[in-house]
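Researcher: Please generate the 3D structure of the following complex. Treat every line as part of one assembly.
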Amino acid sequence: MPREHYLNATYGIRSWLLTTDHKRIALLYLASVTFFFFVGGMFATMIRIHLLTPNGYLVSPETYNKLFTMHGVAMIFFFLIPSIPAVLGNFLIPLMIGAKDLAFPKINLLSWYIYLVGGSFVLYSFATGGLDTGWTFYTPLSSVYSNSAVTPAVIGIFINGFSSILTGLNFIVTIHTMRAPGMTWFRLPLFVWAHYATSIIFILGTPVIAITLLLAGLERMFHLGFFNPALGGDPILFQHLFWFYSHPAVYIMILPAMGVISEIIPTFARKPIFGYAFIAGSSIAIAVIGFFVWAHHMFLTGESTFAALAFSFLSYLVAIPSAVKVFNWASTLYKGSIAWDTPMLYAMGFIGLFLIGGLTGLFLACLGLDIHLHDTYFVVAHFHYIMVGGAVMGYVGGLHFWWPKITGKLYPEFLARVAAVTLFIGFNLTFFPQFILGYLGMPRRYHNYPPEFQVLNVMSTAGASILALGYLLPMVYLIWSMRYGQVAGPNPWPATGLEWKTDSPPLTENFHVTPEVTWEPYDFKNRQDLGLVAGTRPLAPAHGDD
Amino acid sequence: MQSQLPLYPEQASNFAPHVDALMIFIIAVCLFFAVAVTAAVVIFFFKYQRKHPDEVGVPIHGDMRLETAWMVVPLVLALAMFGWGAVVYVDFRNTPQETLDIYVIGKQWMWKLQQPNGMREINELHVPVGRNIRLIMASEDVIHDFFVPAFRVKMDVVPGHYNTMWFRPTKAGRYHFFCAQYCGTNHAVMGGWVTVMEPSDYAAWLSGSSGADANPVVAGEKLFAEKACITCHFSNGTGRAPSLNGVYGGQVGLADGSTVTADESYIRESILVPNAKIVRGYQPVMPTFQGQLTEEQIMALTAYIKSLQSQPVPATGAGVLPAAAGKK
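Model: Done. Output below.
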């Protein structure tokens, strides 16, 4: 372990709560998103237990409706959207480009506090009556008819949006202006490209959800008529505005995870990624095209047939760049030197689960099929495959990959591999039966269901118990490793990114000497400093006073 | 053909076989790619497992032909899926000419359905097999959705305007329907049964109805007088407002020069937002009935106005344009 690093540079609670070090802010976010993951996970556990029987006996209908709503709100706005960008993005982007910090360190801290304030409003809503509108807040149910704590919740989500917007701003400016000498755009790690694309969506999309929820909240508080038909408003207008953000939001949730996978695969195959420019470009393409598909959530609202045709066509277009990524990742494995380390297991799991999740999107984009599948469990399975099977596996895999850099310690490898496999198996058992439930006609958001759907529901709940184990294991051993884990050294894998050319954990200022980049990304063959020539060890990071 | 663990519902409508065929096509394409990619990944994972600690992989940066191939081929397949899906959907959204119309009202947390002769049902829908059925749907409160898995059809029921959908039942039987848009506390129990009957059975069931008062046309005629519509809309065209004889289904000429087809939505809008469209040659003097009529009353008035389709159209003062007057 280096003598001085960002964790021991200063002590005391104020040095953490008032830090402007992007690495400490990343850990502050790690703690808060993990908290919300537990909150959302607790609600999910109650949902799956309740659905063991057709006439669920665990909770009342009102409570069940609150459970799925709060599960969605907590997970989407307070876990999935911030997770990779605010934890891994914050920690790694300056290191990956050779900078000392982000462009706006104080705004970075402000983002975290805004997140906390938004989260507090939402927790207040949960604690004082709960929320039962669905995370989608469709009107006039949310703005007129619901008797739950809608107003504090929409205020909380409105405030939280600014956390995203400021983070996006910070990332874009940083990537444009603070790259080290020699770090050209096409030498950037693909993780950085992924976050650049995500930041575009943060900035352009988030203001729309902010104003939409604000209007719904104002309608509720002051009996206005934006979306309430009894006062001349249009409920469908709400859906257009809501989905204009919320569809790009799903790309906010997956692009960073794809960025993680694009780092892990070349590292553990020890060769450059296949099709670098195509992976970088596909991230931008997904971000852009993703803004033009929102009304595929509205095929059955009575929107015009022409609109439906246009949005279905565009939805198929947005699938192509994702397919390109999967093919390029698979091709990177060809003639690689593949280690079966835990991060690689997560990456392989990601490919498998994202494949199913992404392909099932093609079913839903299909107008003729969506008539039958819309608002059934098929949709629930589809988005969980991508958001949990994809984004969460990317997040957990990334945490494992960069854990040595963040903490200076290694986690226990065997236990970690067991957890990765447990997660993969548990996940499939939980969510695959839901595709079948959906085609059979079980609608979503149902606290009771016809008895013929019970067998598949029981299978799903059984799988969920295994999935839960897969999440709990890393929480235990990662924390254990912070104290008892083996010391990692600067570059245990080894990997080729700039972040690995400095100490583990890094200095507060990241680098002893500002690096100068003269090599291409993922170039294992020509990097002498990685210690891959037989008998040599990786070179230690440069010290200005050596 | 329901085995112990069925994978799909019964096929009981004209749409069901098409939707299932489309499903099989997309499953086949996706399964091919899923298996191909998974096989490649698994095979590479094993075949290229690291053999000694300092080994590196062979640097292959890319291949333009491969990139092109795996952009073009998926695009072509995607367009095929889009195209076939579009055909089925357009068929679904284009209601045929001759339909048996059922009025449907969704409200928290029940369904009220009314047959053309006035027969009312709650959470039940009886229809004859082999007829094109059109559901004209309104909500009294929040957004609902009428979903019949065995027919493979659903449509949102949105407050503030009508949504319609159609289907043709192809097999007698009893089929579940569900509310498929989250609508509050009892969303999950807001369902019922569609009973598809042989035409003769349906006719027999229908004639068990409780008399003329239930007939929406009769109810509508009463309302037309009660709400004073009749004081302006003289049938002979001499009133302050156009005659409604023959209007339904025809083309109406508007003050701004355009024309509009007089369907259920137009009639509803004319009652609730009369100044939205002014008939050419008339003053905008009609008061609005927003908040004064329930959805059911609007449906009754609509049924009555539809019944005036076959009444003689006056030479002057007609609501409908002469050249296009007549059946839809």
